């Protein structure tokens, strides 16, 4: 019922709607409406309650709860099954369990806080409550295991575009899986899969975006290389707006990829916003350190470099520093 009240208040945002009108619209007593509104105010909704005029929604809190997301979600596949946790160890871990239990493609797991967030290479991913987007998507594409990295490129393209669209910031993509603002990391992507020899069972793509995280919340050792959207744009941003924009763009790019079996659209975006291409880079791949110039991306999203001998090489994965 909270969803219906919220929907009615949102449709009339800034205007009063009487308790009677709400009770007729939703089919419950005025006392039930009042109780729900009281609960919503405790949850952080700024709602005016004035006798004889009714209720007026002034401001929603920055929440990622299901009601808030579902009311405004426009996608048909990505997020069609949406699972929210106020707190969980890791959305990627939870997505793995859900996928193994048969959750459909497009399932999105989102949490307000992660207590055991995981980064690449076994690192920890600090995910404080109420300030970031900690989210994983379950996909079941018909792919060979070696192609899973394409999903990372597609995700990077979606996140960078969404951040730019919502906030106007100059989000860049550091190949293969970091989103950068002002030379600092604002988002990391962790793509994991379950596969047979020749085919993927499912892919979990997790993204951690520091939206309103304050610098002192980052662990000491990453403080000089991590940033948040808030730090870059100078004010807090509603996380919901970014989530909805990511899911919308992700769905577009993913359906296009499935239909045409090409990620050229995503790669085009990765090229356009790349902070890697054209620079000298240090690549750590399979315990080998290589210095080279990042030249281009292939149409499958692999990195082309010019090595110290002047030859062009293709890099499929690795840790890159610019
Ligand atoms: C990295 O840059 O090392 C990747 C970080 C990925 C973090 C996200 S947060 C949501 C999802 N759940 C996790 O435990 N990790 C990913």
CATH topology of the largest domain: BirA Bifunctional Protein, domain 2
Compute the number of strand runs: 14
- Determine the number of helices (DSSP H or I, runs of at least 4 residues): 9
Ends distance: 51 Å
Unreliable stretches: none
The share of residues in extended strands comes to: 25-35%
- Tell me the structural class: alpha+beta
CATH architecture of the largest domain: 2-Layer Sandwich
> For this structure, what is the CATH class of the largest domain?
Alpha Beta
Order of helices and strands: HHHEEHEHEEHEEEEHHHEEEEE
Q: Characterize the biggest β-sheet.
A: 7 strands, mixed
Tell me the overall shape: elongated
Lateral strand order in the biggest sheet: 3-4-5-9-8-7-6
């Amino acid at each position: 019922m909270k969803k219906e009240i919220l929907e009615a208040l949102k449709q009339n945002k800034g205007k009063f709607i009487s308790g009677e009108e709400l009770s007729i619209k939703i089919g419950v007593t005025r006392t039930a409406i009042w109780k729900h509104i009281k609960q919503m105010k405790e949850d952080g909704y700024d709602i005016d309650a004035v006798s004889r005029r009714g209720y007026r929604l002034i401001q929603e809190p920055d929440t990622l709860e299901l009601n808030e997301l579902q009311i405004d979600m426009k996608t048909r596949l990505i997020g069609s099954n949406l699972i929210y946790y106020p707190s969980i160890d890791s959305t990627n871990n939870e997505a793995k369990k859900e996928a193994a239990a048969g959750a459909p493609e497009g399932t999105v797991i989102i949490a307000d806080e992660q207590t055991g967030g995981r980064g690449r290479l076994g690192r920890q991913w600090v995910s404080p409550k109420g300030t970031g987007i900690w989210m994983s998507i379950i996909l079941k594409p018909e792919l060979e295991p070696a192609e899973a990295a394409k999903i990372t490129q597609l995700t990077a393209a979606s996140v960078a575009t969404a951040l730019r669209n919502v906030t106007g910031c100059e989000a860049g993509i550091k190949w293969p899986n970091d989103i950068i603002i002002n030379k600092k990391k604002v988002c990391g992507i962790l793509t994991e899969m379950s596969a047979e020899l020749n085919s993927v069972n499912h892919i979990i793509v997790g993204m951690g975006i520091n939206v309103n995280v304050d610098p002192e919340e980052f662990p000491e050792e990453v403080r000089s290389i991590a940033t948040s959207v808030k730090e870059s744009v100078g004010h807090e941003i509603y996380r919901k707006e970014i989530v909805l924009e990511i899911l919308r763009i992700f769905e577009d790019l993913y359906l296009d990829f499935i239909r045409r079996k090409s990620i050229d659209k995503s790669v085009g975006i990765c090229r356009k916003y790349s902070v890697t291409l054209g620079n000298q880079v240090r690549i750590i791949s399979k315990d080998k350190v290589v210095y080279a110039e990042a030249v281009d991306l292939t149409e499958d999203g692999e990195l082309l470099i010019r090595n110290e001998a002047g030859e062009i090489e293709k890099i499929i994965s690795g840790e890159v520093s610019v």
